[in-house]
Amino acid sequence: MSDVVSYQREDEIGLIVVDNPPVNALGHAVRQGLLDALDQGLADDGARALVVMGAGRTFPAGADIREFGQTPKEPALPDVINRLEDSGKLLIAAVHGTALGGGMEITLGCDYRLALDSARMGLPEVNLGLLPGAGGTQRLPRLIGAQAALDAIVGGKPMKAGQLEKMGVVDKVVSGDLKAEAIAYARQLADDNAPRRKVSELTVDKESNTVFSDYEQSIARKKRGFLAPFHCIKAVQAATELDFAAGQKRERELFTELLNSPQSAAQRHVFFAEREVGKVPGIAKDTPRREIAQVGIIGAGTMGGGIAMNFLSAGIPVKMLEMKQEALDKGVALIRKNYEATAKKGRMTSEQVERCMSLLTTTLSYDDLSDVDLVIEAVFENMKVKKEVFGELDRVTKPGAILATNTSTLDVNEIAQSTRRPEDVIGMHFFSPANVMKLLENVRGEATSDEVIATVMDLSKRIGKVGVLVGVCYGFVGNRILHKRQAQAISLVNEGAAPAQVDKVLYDFGLPMGPFAMADLAGLDVGWRIREGLRESDPANAPERNWLDALAEQERWGQKTGGGVFDYAEGDRTPRPSEVTAAEIEKYRAEQGIDTREVSDTEILERCLYVMVNEGAKILEEGVAMRPLDIDIVWIYGYGFPVYQGGPMFWADSIGLDKVHAKIQQFHDETGHDDWKPAPLLERLAKEGKRFADL
Ligand code: T1G
To answer: Is the pLDDT of residue 243 over 80?
Structure first.
């Protein structure tokens, strides 16, 4: 008998129990164990019906993702489920926790499905660049029709037990003791001589002849560049055109194509990376955490308000401080406006809006922050102002309170040194809009204690963020790499490319927008003011004036002024090439005596991405990022790097570091520019034929 699947009989009912912590993943041993337990149950004359269930926290949550990419071992899951469905006894699935992917497919191979009211089921394979490969694309449409199956499979979102009962997937929803409920239900079915119900023998309702082409069109924009969603549609279509066996064969072909695709390898990398970033090497699992029951926010501007919403939405009371009442009123009004907009879209109830707003209080006095557990400062990006704020916080907050700064560029160590408790100071760099963007760069200072780091990393999850721990340097991980890419984009235009050409190359690569459309969204004035500041404070090292400065000086600040690098029609965010910009670029090239040349799309892609990889390697050498996967997650959740490319460091591995290094060396030989000086780490890995993933 396998040690991950057991069989026992209780009250004339055979129980097949999967026990493979943490999530009962359907690895090889579990698949074999299921067949062995099934055979035992079928041979057990005392068992009138069989129940399949999971031990621990959940029904099987899918295939073992770690096995993908390895040589597959028999029995394969589709065969296991076909055996379950063809077995000679009534089979009931009893679901708790999250029956996902292959787990849900097992339930579809059973005659009846019972679920706890807290359970969820779904087919999220598309999020791994895959499709349900164990009969899910053939059985689910037979149960709920093609349209609803497409929503479930292409959407990949888990569904609640109650919703599934309404859809006819779950037959009974229970609460309390699942095993007892399952045995009682199985006995009832046996007593009632309930019929076997093979889902594979059902036919699929196809709502219309265009349901599949319509669906493809409906996701074309949102799923641009992805492979899996469109393979999912093809598989469900096969269910409506072929008999079950042929459909399952087609499903397997499409599944195998995806499994062997670079996209799925990238998305599986991201699945594990997203979980790994939360673990901080060197900080023990049992490091004490501080309780965060109340939070103070300094600054009620766009960032302060967005940050506050994360805590309010997580049920954590917030005290918001400002210097003037009208700034507070404006900040509170913006928070309410954002919540009401979400409610209008049906993603919140008005009760939930009121509950969040009821957790928000405001103050004009620092003394009112004496009882909070954490304060996050989100004031003007100026060191003098930051130090004044932290001086006040140091004076009023209780011992053990965590003092965090939302700075995106300033030195966290210098801010910490302006207090008597630098060990309690940390950076919490939210991304705008802070209530929407999932990424949170948590910045550890030289003195930041393990307790503060562990507390803030856990808190990141609690407020629905992906927290990545980074070190102190200019721009931390995300912006530092972004600055290098933007610099390359500008150089490429100086040398002959058009801004629209550069943007199209990166857009086609899968980024939500190119460098110049992004600059127009953020506002050309932001970068210009920082450069002007440097030109005043440090003229010797200040950046040279370029055509972007010329645009900013003409108040072409981007979308907000109807024109920046690109032109924007009233109420339309579509970037259109601008004659003003073209003229400024021409003027700049002439002033610099630049002989322009044809710039290829390949060169644009290589220069914009390889400079990111090289900077990423330097960041790893300096310890500003702990692992390459931290950089990948920062860029995926903070800058829209396509998940199906896996992040800049994973992508570089997929290209081959020897090839990346050789090109970087060539760019360095050609330009002599420091940004192209190959990072020693990259050089070493390339020479040793290794990958960043081997670090
Ligand atoms: N395989 C291997 N490891 C898994 C796993 C899986 N399916 N799911 C979770 N883990 C690990 C995870 O890495 C972590 O490890 C620990 O379990 C706890 O997870 C044929 C092709 C179930 C909702 O996509 O969505 O079936 O970090 O931190 O927040 O059609 O995990 O502790 O070392 O995420 O409570 C389809 C994936 C597979 C579900 C729990 N299934 N898992 O969330 O804990 S493809 C999925 C999840 C498939 C078939 C196809 C979540 C969860 P560690 P966690 P959680």
So the answer is: yes
CB 581 within 8 A of CB 605: no
Amino acid at 598: E
Same domain (yes/no): 72, 193: yes
Model confidence at 1, in pLDDT bands (50, 70, 90)?
low
Clarify whether residues 238 and 167 are in a common domain: yes
* Cis, peptide link before residue 75, omega less than 30° from 0: yes
Catalytic, 579? Answer: no
Among 571, 594, 617, which residue terminates a domain? 594
189 and 75 fall within a common domain: yes
CATH, residue 527: 1.10.1040.50
Q: Which atom from ligand 1 is nearest to the alpha carbon of 105?
A: 30
Residue 448 forms part of a structural domain: yes
The mean of the pLDDT values for the chain is 96
For residue 225, what are its two tokens?
């560049």
Segment 531-547 mean pLDDT = 83
Using most ligand atoms within 8 A of CB, pick from 18, 26, 64, 65 the residue to mutate for ligand 1. Answer: 65
Q: Is the CB of 66 under 6 A from ligand 1?
A: yes
Q: What are 445-481's pLDDT values in tens digits?
A: 999 999 999 999 999 999 999 999 999 999 999 999 9
- Kindly report the pTM of this predicted structure: 0.96
Residue-number span of the structural domain to which 126 is assigned: 5-260
- 310 and 247 in a common domain: no
Cα-to-centroid distance, 61 and ligand 1 (Å): 6
Whether the pLDDT of residue 529 is over 80: the answer is: yes
Instruction: Give the chain's end-to-end CA distance (angstroms, integer).
Output: 39
The amino acid occupying position 7 is: Y
Token pair of 642, please? 């396509």
| Domain-embedded: residue 627 | no
Residues 94, 28 within the same domain: yes
- pLDDT tens digits for 256-304? 999 999 999 999 999 999 999 999 999 999 999 999 999 999 999 999 9
125 catalytic? Reply is: yes
pLDDT of residue 2: 74
Whether 406 and 519 map to the same domain: the answer is no
* pLDDT of res. 538: 79
Q: pLDDT value at position 543?
A: 80
The domain total for the chain is 3
Whole-number Å distance between alpha carbons of 492 and 510 = 19
Is the CB of 61 within 6 Å of ligand 1?
Answer: yes
The CATH number that applies at residue 226 is 3.90.226.10
Residue closest by Cα to atom 40 of ligand 1 = 23
Q: What is the pLDDT of residues 312-365, one digit of tens each?
A: 999 999 999 999 999 999 999 999 999 999 999 999 999 999 999 999 999 999
Mutate which of 18, 20, 23 for ligand 1 pocket (most atoms within 8 A of beta carbon) = 23
Whether residue 306 is found in the same domain as residue 247 = no
Instruction: Judge if 529 and 390 occupy the same domain.
Output: no
Q: Are 230 and 27 in contact, with CB atoms under 8 Å apart?
A: no
